[in-house]
Amino acid sequence: MYTALYRRFRPSDFDEVVGQEAIVTSLKNQIKNNMVSHAYLFTGSRGTGKTSMAKIFAKAVNCLEPIDGNPCNHCKNCLAIANGDSTDIIEIDAASNNGVNNIRELREDVKYPPSVGKYRVYIIDEVHMLSQGAFNALLKTLEEPPAYIIFILATTDPQKVPVTISSRCQRYDFKRIPANRIVDRLMDISKEVNITLQPEAALLIARKAEGALRDALSILDECIAFCGSTIARNDVLEVLGITAEDSLAEIIKALNERDASRCVGIVDQEYMNGKDPAQFTRDLIGILRDLLFIKTVNGPKEMLDLPESEYKSLNMLSSMMDIREIIRIIDALTETEHSLRYATQPLIVLETSLIKLCLGAELAEDAAPKEDNSIIQRTTEHALSGTQNKDINRPVKKDKVPENRDKGNDIKGQKASLAKAEPDRGFDKLKSAWPNILSSAKQKSMVLFAYLTEGTPVGFDGSTLKISYKSDGSFFREEMEKPENSEIVENIIKEITGLNVKMECIIEGENEKEDEFMARVFEVFDGMDIKIMKE
Ligand SMILES: Nc1ncnc2c1ncn2[C@@H]1O[C@H](COP(=O)(O)OP(=O)(O)OP(=O)(O)O)[C@@H](O)[C@H]1O
Ligand SMILES: [Mg+2]
Ligand SMILES: [Zn+2]
Asked: Domain residues of the chain, as ranges?
């Protein structure tokens, strides 16, 4: 059976961990000096080595012959842990064991000393998922742990861990791993599995992985499955569904020349090739952001971390463009990107937006005053901060569209039905059934229940039920949006209320745009001579 690369290449000692040197040094020193503490909190974004580090640490504290703080990986304790045979290491997934009772069991459990090694190590993954009660129950043990117990709590979301808990732990923040380190690791691993990975392909994977080595290895896995033993940059582009830079650069050139029909032509072509308009828009924004970088930042070349050939062509492109023009396009496309989340006809929305951009000068004359500097300021900040927050490249879910808007491809028809819609039809029914829905969800899955209770049903338009999460609830929203979760809930709702409901999860305050958006689409179409019967 094929073992995923990220499992196969789990670091087995501290020196194999990439990019977390400060943490490695500190933990090794503790082991060398025999000064280990009883509780650790490992935080940091996904796939950066938290669980791996916890396991290495657990091996090291129990190793019979540690070498310079590292586990030897040969003694019977190391081998037992590596094979998963040791009873002295207990891994708990807090996401599925988040209740008070789970922690009660744990409290009983810690009374027993280790069977073979020196320490029993509890690794509690996703610790932020523990319920309040469970945290409270854990607190007791954390306060007076038996001498032979070590807790390693790991989480991607430290804000959700109560201070009472985190203040009793030594905290280590895992960093996103720099792209060049990911590249090195990818190249090493490829060599080991006899894959020819071109450096430019590795760089692209590394950029896409956003600092998560596990993600990088997963992408590499996909590439291997897709193209076998030689992986070139274009293969990666294909696997990731990223639009080839050529057509992006072409569009930007066309935009710069205000050539609307060429813009539409290229977008159509890409759409025919199976590209998703939302992804295409994000890719465009990504390139424009790079252009803005080149124009505004000292030493952009180093910061952008692009292959030479690509940097050259971007540099050329940026030299042809005015900085205000770049900002104007980013601003418009950012709005387009937002609108596309709710669009039933994404291709048209994107095309319209590009046409508008090409006609920009004329349209702007009708519209009121000149853009003021504060807008430029804001846009620039947004664009620049985008390099940190690379959400822009992440694929979005499609088909998140309320059904009653899905049908009509005649915009006028939609307009009429939108006006007639009774927004809250059935909502009362749903609200009063909500407690039943929750308890039914609870029976199916505790975790699902936990996710659901974090949100509040806030609206129903006859087909789409909106669940609102607090501003820090994006984790729950993401989980609830996974089809395997949302479908269960939708079925429960159907069972209990008889309503066919699609769930849509929103974050408080982020949802105002939707209706505004439909209104804007009509506005745009009213003013223009565009065929709207298109798929
Ligand atoms: N710093 C790293 N050095 C080497 N390999 C790493 C590192 N981080 C992640 N990996 C690779 O990714 C895999 C998963 O890493 P790990 O489970 O330790 O991440 P994590 O931080 O615990 O992620 P999550 O937050 O999703 O639990 C490892 O088996 C390894 O292949
Ligand atoms: Mg982990
Ligand atoms: Zn050992």
From this structure: 5-174, 179-240, 245-399, 427-511
Three-state DSSP string of 309-328: HHHHHHHHHHHHCCHHHHHH
The pairing of strands 230-231 and 196-197 is parallel
Q: How far is CA 124 from CA 141, 439, 449, in A?
A: 14, 27, 20
Torsion of CA 349, 354, 359, 360, to 10 degrees: 100
pLDDT band of 362, cuts 50, 70, 90 = low
Ligand 1 near 211 CB (within 6 A)? no
Closest Cα partner for 43 from 138, 120, 127, 150? Answer: 127
DSSP 8-state secondary structure symbol assigned to residue 529 = -
Correct CATH for 179-240 of 1.10.8.60, 3.40.50.720, 1.10.40.30, 2.40.10.120: 1.10.8.60
Which amino acid, residue 90? I
Look at residue 369 and tell me whether its pLDDT is greater than 50: no
SS3 letters across 26-50? HHHHHHHCCCCCCEEEEEECCCCCH
**Cβ 19 under 6 angstroms from ligand 1:** yes
DSSP state of 67: B
Name the β-bridge partners of 459: 466
Is the CB of 18 within 6 Å of ligand 1? yes
CB of 23 within 6 A of ligand 1: the answer is no
CATH topology for 5-174 is Rossmann fold (3.40.50)
CA of residue 99 relative to chain centroid, distance: 27
CA–centroid distance, 61 to ligand 3, in Å, is 9
pTM of the model: 0.57
Q: Which residue has the higher pLDDT, 342 or 336?
A: 336
217 lines ligand 1 (CB under 6 A): yes
Helix (H), strand (E) at residue 91: strand 89-93
Residues 94/129, Cβ–Cβ less than 8 Å: yes
Among all chains, which residue has been given the structure tokens 């193209």? 227
3-state SS class at 347: helix
H helices of 167-276, in order, are: 179-192, 199-209, 213-227, 233-240, 245-256, 260-272
Partners of 40 in beta bridges: 152, 170
Q: How many Å lie between the centroid of ligand 1 and the Cα of residue 448? A: 25
Residues 8-42: tens digit of each pLDDT: 999 999 999 999 999 999 999 999 999 999 999 99
What's residue 268's pLDDT? 84
**Residue 177 DSSP code:** P
Q: What share of the chain is helix, strand, coil (3-state, %, to 5)?
A: 60, 10, 30
Range from 150-164, 259-273, 353-367 carrying the lowest mean pLDDT: 353-367
Closest atom of ligand 1 relative to the 7 alpha carbon: 29
| Residue type for position 240 | L
CATH superfamily assigned to domain 427-511: DnaA, N-terminal domain (3.30.300.180)
Q: How far apart are CA 89 and CA 124, in angstroms?
A: 11
CATH number attached to the domain at 245-399: 1.20.272.10
User: 20 alpha carbon to ligand 3 midpoint, in Å?
Assistant: 22
